[in-house]
Specification:
Largest sheet: 6 strands, mixed
Low-confidence stretches: none
Number of strands: 6
Radius of gyration: 16 Å
Strand content: 35-45%
Number of helices: 2
CATH topology: STM4215-like
Order of helices and strands: HEEEEHEE
Distance between the termini: 13 Å
Length: about 140
């Protein structure tokens, strides 16, 4: 199920007209170790799966899971230098529009349930969008 969700998100984000998202990967605390990591193009989106709690039911397993999309962009400067620094919010909305409603064989439609705005940035800005989904896994 996680692979199916990840692939659906990648296809949706990398298929956006105008290609605003340049890199998609799994979350690995990427912004915390940015100097130590292999360079990746920005804007980037990292997919973080929250811990999944499964419940057994009629020959399979079901969950109500969550995931987070870490949207990482370069900081372009304070608002006093122009509205361009607010473009990150446009990108967040573009990402959310591409992902909301995605579903697959083993997961139900992704639903936007929360947003975190970065308040402690230097060279990059990390915005986090939270999504919920239902999932199933068969044995």
């Amino acid at each position: 199920m996680r692979k199916e969700i990840y692939r659906a998100i990648c296809a949706a984000l990398l298929g956006i007209d105008g290609a605003p998202v340049k890199h998609v990967d799994l979350w690995n605390h990427n912004v915390e170790f940015i100097e130590q990591e292999e360079a990746w193009d920005r804007p980037a989106v990292f997919v973080e799966f929250a811990p999944i709690e499964w419940r057994a039911d009629k020959g399979g397993y079901h969950t109500q899971g969550t995931l987070r999309l870490h949207i990482v962009t370069d900081w372009v400067g304070p608002l006093s230098q122009g509205d361009e620094s607010l473009d990150v919010f446009d990108l967040c909305e573009t990402v959310c529009r591409a992902v909301v409603g995605l579903s697959g064989e083993h997961f139900g439609a992704l639903r936007l349930v929360g947003s975190d705005t970065n308040h402690n940035h230097e060279d990059i800005v990390e915005s986090i969008e939270h999504f919920a989904y239902s999932g199933e896994w068969s044995v």
